[in-house]
Amino acid sequence: MINLNVNQKAYQVDADPNMPLLWVIRDIIGLTGTKYGCGVAQCGACVVHLNGEAVRSCVTKVSRAEGQKIVTIEGLSKDNNHPAQVAWNEENVPQCGYCHSGQIMSAAVLLREKPNPTDEDIDSAMAGNICRCGTYLRIRKAIHLAAELQRKESASK
Amino acid sequence: MSTSNVSRRNFLRAAGLTGTALCLGFYFPSNAKNSQIVAADGAAAADIELNAWIRIDTDGKVTIFNHRAEMGQGSYQSVPQIIAEELEVDLKDVNIVFAQGNQDKYGSQITGGSSTIRGSYKNLLKLSATARLMLITAAAAKWNVPVTECYAQSGNVIHRPSGKKYHYGELVVDASKLETPKNIILKKRSEYKLVGKPLHRQDTPLKTNGAAIFGLDKRLPGMLYATVERNPRLRGKVKSFDDIATRKIPGVTDVFKVQMDVFNTTREGVAVVANSTWAAIQGKKALRVEWDDTGFEHVNTADIYKRQHQELATKEGLSFKKQGDPDGIIKNAKKTLDVIYQTPYQSHSCMEPVNCIAHYQKDKLEIWGPIQAPDWVQEYLSKQLGFPKEKVFVNMTFLGGGFGRKAFLDYPHEATMISKKIGAPVQVVWTREDDATQGPYRPGMSYRAQGVIANGEISAVKFRMAGQNHNHFMGGKKDVANDSTAEGFLPPYFETIKNISFSDVPFETPVPTMWWRSVYASTNGFAYESFMDELAHEAGKDPLAFRRQYLKDERSQRLIDKMEEVSGWKNRKKNEGYGVAITECFSSTVAQVVKVSRKADGKVKIDHVWAVMDCGWYVNPDIIKAQVEGSVVMALGAATIHEITFKDGLVEQNNFYDYKMPRIADIPPIDVYIMENDADAGGVGEPGLPAFAPALTNAIFDLTSKRIRKLPFDMALV
To answer: What is the predicted ipTM?
Structure first.
């Protein structure tokens, strides 16, 4: 049995310790917001937060995540109201939508580390996330908007 | 009791129609050209199989049965936006349900050819306006006032003089008993409150919090997972396999040979069934399979193009269209431009790899998956299994991209065969490598273009194409030209270019091919619009002015005006390369201008892309802009990176490390404009793609005098 903490909830899972976290989250825990895109850390559809860092769950063994804090897209905010989620809605970013769990999870880490990201910061933080529908320009716009929303949020606190 | 009665009653019951809702649909009488609108009760009395599209319940909620797939193109938003407009309801009161596959009920459901809106908007408008009038009529009768004193707004009928109102929910029972009115008057475009507005998509919230259910996310009770090691040469059979290591993997429950129909051929593979996706993937890796690859050609990419070029050098091909005497003019011309263009095989590479759930039971089959053509799947599988159609339930999920790949029948067929064998519901997951190496692909094409310029004018043009014809896989005749031979080429050119011909030089390989976003226009457009540019330079004319000269119709002229205005074409500077291309695709025309320049590091970079879309009547301008932006990005990859290559019959690309996708830093600014006119609606999801590649290579020619005739090309080497 492996003890996992996903979105502040404790799980005990019976899984091969080598099974990537992606498949444990999807097939055993049953949270399907985290996506399979390539299986080899190329596309970013599977990005989750492990202790606040963006990791590719398709190549992260579940044993490495044992007892640590895992956050998936389902747990990023209570009500779809993380600044990145709000901005993604505002800028109509998704088309098919499949990659955007991973895009938003990558963007959330960037927004925490660099609350005022430049285009170059965005290019480098988002370089690992593919969008086949080609929504990249809107992703960039949404991240700038999310930064602005985040600043307003902290100013009002 | 006939079968159709049973199915209709089942349907009416399933739709909750027990006299407590207004349910309207339309159907196509067998002997009439136009659709007829009918209420559920009327349909039952007249023994009509109803196309149920909208239902209004006693609580006033509206349910739309969306018959088309949502794969990113926005039907989940645009179809309700049309219905809410004429029905006079708020979008928030509209609920969308993906309809199951049923061609008898919905007509063709194939989400392809950018047809969702252009194929159905007139019916959707009429249907919604009919429902509104019935609700108004029911209210007027209750109040005993003239219908003309009543109007509808935000899901209510209001009596203008008194201000009295009824909520739609209070009227549906009465309305459902009315005759469906004829002679519906639709709103004018100037009266629209929703159509034509850039409203937010209703599926976006689901796609930002992980709630949207794609094919891979669907779960059924007792469902198992499967992967399949399929023949890597796409046509071969399994000779033998060793599954000892596979069966040792914890979670693997079954291993067996499986067959999958790929058009008229059978591909064999070995299925690994397990209790998790991971175990199924591990089990597949541990398999040792010996293949029988006899009886078909093992292709090599270089040979394919060599053969295409040889055929184009020596054969006239099957004539598709010819006017005047281009051959005579070319024969007697002092100088003829005579060039070859070449475009690669490509993979669809949807972000959601191909997958499908099948649950085969003794007397019925249930399918769940990212499916573009549910009605087609239903019909095909019912034939394969000998089940009546109403026992084959095909359910669409959200699609994580489709681009033509998910309009194919192979993967639902294979999932069905696996479920049948194990007697349980199963989700068959294609790995990214399966998705990349198994096809079907966009076909690699070669084009020969010949042209004569005399006194600065086009005197003759002759196009020949050589490449695989999808229709042949679907049983199409081989002695007729590909019906898409001139796809992408602007029809108004035929008015001004008096001597022109198109022909298709038949070309076959064993590689399965399938529609790929914008289909043949995606490759034709490169050849035809590059050649227009070459002709313009030969004539010594400005490429945009040259197109203006040969596209004399009003719509093209307005489009060119707009392009000229937004791109600053006339004010371009010395060290800037500007290229233009204009293509037609699925009844929409798109012009693009690409601007390039050479940077300090010596490399040519795309500075800007301007696109102008003329799709006639439209629903949501923001979705249209998004589709064109996305088409440009897909076209950028297609023009400068992507190629599926074959060596001894094996595909050489596997995953995103060797079939690389454009990334965020690679995308130039893209500005999209939409033309305003009252022409019939054209397509939106695909027409933005074909013009990009030729606009880019024409721009590079403008900057460097280097003509690129073969895709993909490496921007770093320009």
So the answer is: 0.98
